[in-house]
């Protein structure tokens, strides 16, 4: 459909409903709260209809496209190793993966399932737990030789730190030891927009990084990286969730089998 045809249809819909669904300007448009409600509940109705139609077909085979959004780290370490198994099990489902560490708007980007890390904000998203992983502060042995090894979090201000450049809910580094707690806002930081890029920088002796255990496990075993400030980093962990829009009751079968597959084969451990 042409943009003008879509605009006319939306205008007729707004007239019938008696509410504005979109706020328009010359360069962009944005959903109103009524528009968001109409869109999200409409998705639920369509999903329920899709589920009904599939339930009465002869083979009841899940099919269609699933748009997923995930970090490069989760894709590399968990999804990529088992993606061929999913394709073999559900040959009529087409996966479309969008890789980014940033938190995006699922409605705007038309994403069916997103993988989120850290504590979840209160929202209209439904979540399924994918487990959690320990976090470690690490650097290379060569970096320690060149710059020394910090023994206290306060000493990190004298070191080159590696962190992400995108916005996230938790922007600080947290350290706990017995009854002491220190919250650090990293300074003197080299920032990149992928967790895997931070890992590569740490391996290249560029500084100190905070990374998930599954990212650094192999490098630690091969002594390419070493843990630091371990006594200040007891039980530090990060949660992983699969999130989607709507209600768990109205998830299309193609999305539901994908979520079940993630829990079974791509769970964090």
Automatic annotation (TrEMBL):
Pfam families per UniProt: HTH_1, LysR_substrate
Q: Which UniProt keywords apply?
A: DNA-binding, Transcription, Transcription regulation
Q: Which domain of life is it from?
A: Bacteria
Segments forming domain HTH lysR-type: 1-32
Q: Which InterPro entries match?
A: LysR-type_TF_proteobact-type (IPR058163), LysR_HTH_N (IPR000847), LysR_subst-bd (IPR005119), WH-like_DNA-bd_sf (IPR036388), WH_DNA-bd_sf (IPR036390)
UniProt lists the family membership as follows: Belongs to the LysR transcriptional regulatory family.
In Swiss-Prot or TrEMBL terms, this protein is called HTH lysR-type domain-containing protein
Which organism was this protein described from? Acinetobacter calcoaceticus DSM 30006 = CIP 81.8
